[in-house]
Automatic annotation (TrEMBL):
It is an enzyme of class 4 (lyase). This is Deoxyribodipyrimidine photo-lyase. Transmembrane segments: none annotated. The keyword Amino-acid biosynthesis does not apply. GO terms for molecular function: deoxyribodipyrimidine photo-lyase activity; DNA binding; FAD binding. Gene3D superfamilies: 1.25.40.80, DNA Cyclobutane Dipyrimidine Photolyase, subunit A, domain 3 (1.10.579.10), HUPs (3.40.50.620). Its EC number is 4.1.99.3. Its cofactor is FAD. It comes from the Bacteria. Coiled coil: none annotated. Belongs to the DNA photolyase family. It comes from Modestobacter marinus. Residues 1-129 form the Photolyase/cryptochrome alpha/beta domain. GO terms for biological process: nucleobase-containing compound metabolic process; response to light stimulus; response to stress.
Length: 454
């Protein structure tokens, strides 16, 4: 028999339960056809860094299947039944998709396949979204109790990699879309081998310093695995199995927590598919936001890293330069857009999704809701990040700012986060601050108070 393995966000061969299921279904003497479908509804709207990274991951996956990967273009509900008929396949195997569009699409594919089963095995998460619930069966609203229950629930050991896989290599492919030209943008190397190498290097060299290092954007303190996790070049189970061997340190606990955040946000989206767009705190829905040509100009300054607030500008330039931003700085730039420039979080979330290589609906949009104070979890609406004190605290020697904002490279560290206090004033070519942070903070607090009083 022939079984199809339809790859989506699981672009690897190790620790891949759906691959094992496909090999099983093919049985002795059978074959597995690996397929990827370029679906216009998903591929088209992805930003260029994600499209490029995905194409590069597919090239790696193709190589590791000995060139067997079949690519087709179109609506999966039309393309897959056609391929099943061409190959007389007995089943189509996938890793379950928990996102709102993915769930609808998979139901449509399932209907279109008729008698040929769409078999879902595993998910992109340590614990599949929807599985961890409170004792009364309702979903968690807040991270900390979710994470506790998530640890108690536990997860499977990594699945063994089948070897060899009986790939069938003679199936016609459609042309792949041309790779977007990203100019000077530096993406991480794509694919499963690169993901494993990045993980091993982090685990062996930096994991034990993670608790200290994770908040200093000027150092290489985090794992930089987010794009690999997004596309499933590596599964969180693989990481958690290694972490279990290192138990006991605060850094290991902290890193495990970050993987729990990833699962938590996917869980929230599972229970509330509308939360990618709708406020999780509906009472804040009527907030006043700024619009008009002046506001648009301020947004342009934010987008291009020319706000005159060095840590904000460094973050936005990192976004354009690496399609990535350090987590601490994501919070700072997001807070600045929402609370200093009075823009709705959805605008920033869209901009991030266009430019991030790890752009993920659940982590990104809920990360924005968290910063905006509209999310499920406990972040208070009145917390407004001060870009100057945040810069001084988390980038004390100014190395992050100097890396991304060359205009400030010659400044003494004590002026880097407030260049207007330097003896010679703001260096030539760098903007004066576009707003008065203390004033805008108060404007934000007043607007929050007004909407809550309604
Ligand atoms: P590490 O610190 O090494 O963490 C390891 C992994 O844990 C990450 O790769 C990621 O998968 C997960 N993780 C860590 N922090 C979070 C978090 N707060 N929420 C969810 N998962 C987390 N992460 C994305 O993967 N995609 C996004 O589109 C995204 N958008 C964000 C937008 C905003 C406004 C904010 C505040 C955060 C966002 N994050 C997003 C979360 C976080 O910033 C990134 O996951 C992290 O910076 C990736 O770098 P790393 O792999 O070195 O992280």
């Amino acid at each position: 028999p022939t079984a199809l393995l339809w790859f989506r966000r699981d672009l690897r061969l190790s620790d891949h339960p759906a691959l094992l299921a496909a090999v099983d279904a093919a049985g002795p003497g059978g074959s597995v056809v690996p397929v990827f479908v370029f679906d216009d509804r998903l591929y088209g709207p992805s930003g260029e860094p994600r499209r490029r990274f995905l194409l590069d991951c597919l090239a790696e996956l193709d190589a590791s299947t000995g060139g067997a990967l079949v690519t087709r273009t179109g609506d999966p509900a039309a393309v897959l039944p056609q391929l099943v008929a061409e190959l007389d396949a007995v089943s189509v195997h996938v890793t379950a998709d928990a996102g709102p569009y993915g769930r609808r699409r998979d139901q449509a594919v399932e209907r279109a396949l008729g008698d040929v089963p769409l078999v879902r095995t595993g998910s992109p998460y340590a614990v599949a979204p929807g599985r961890v619930v409170k004792r009364d069966g309702t979903p968690f609203q807040v991270f900390t109790p979710f994470a506790r229950a998530w640890r108690e629930h536990g997860w499977h050991s990594p699945a063994v990699r089948p070897d060899p896989v009986p790939w069938q290599g003679d199936v016609r492919s459609d042309d792949r879309p041309p790779p977007p030209d990203l100019g000077d943008v530096q993406l991480p190397p794509a694919g499963e081998a690169a993901a494993l190498e990045a993980w091993h290097r982090f685990r062996d060299e930096r994991l034990l310093g993670y608790d200290e290092g994770r908040n200093t954007p000027g150092t290489n303190g985090t794992s930089r695995l987010s794009a690999y996790l997004k596309y499933g070049c590596i599964h969180p189970r693989t990481l958690l199995a290694d972490l279990a061997a290192e138990q006991g340190s605060e850094s290991v606990r902290r890193y495990t927590d970050e993987l729990a955040w990833r699962d938590f946000y996917a869980d929230v989206l599972w229970h509330r598919p509308d939360s990618a767009r709708e406020y999780l705190k509906p009472e804040l829905q009527g907030m006043g936001y700024d619009s008009g040509p002046d506001a648009e100009q301020l947004v342009r300054a934010w987008e291009t890293g020319r706000t005159g607030f060095p840590i904000v500008d460094a973050g936005m330039r990192q976004l354009l330069g690496e399609a990535y931003v350090h987590n601490r700085v994501r919070m700072i730039v997001a807070s600045f857009l929402v609370k200093d420039l009075h823009q709705e979080w959805t605008l920033g979330a869209r901009y991030f999704m266009q430019h991030l290589v790890d752009g993920d609906l659940a982590s990104n949009n809920h990360g924005w809701q968290w910063v905006a104070g509209t999310g499920t979890d406990a972040s208070p609406y009145y917390r407004v990040f001060n870009p100057i004190t945040q810069g001084k605290k988390f980038d004390p020697d100014g190395s992050y700012v100097k890396r991304w904002v060359p205009e400030l490279r010659d400044l003494d560290a004590k002026y880097v986060h407030e260049p207007w206090t330097a003896p010679g004033g703001v260096p030539a070519g760098y903007p004066e601050p576009i707003v008065d942070h203390a004033h805008e903070r108060q404007v934000s607090l007043d607007r929050y108070a007004a909407v809550r009083a309604r």
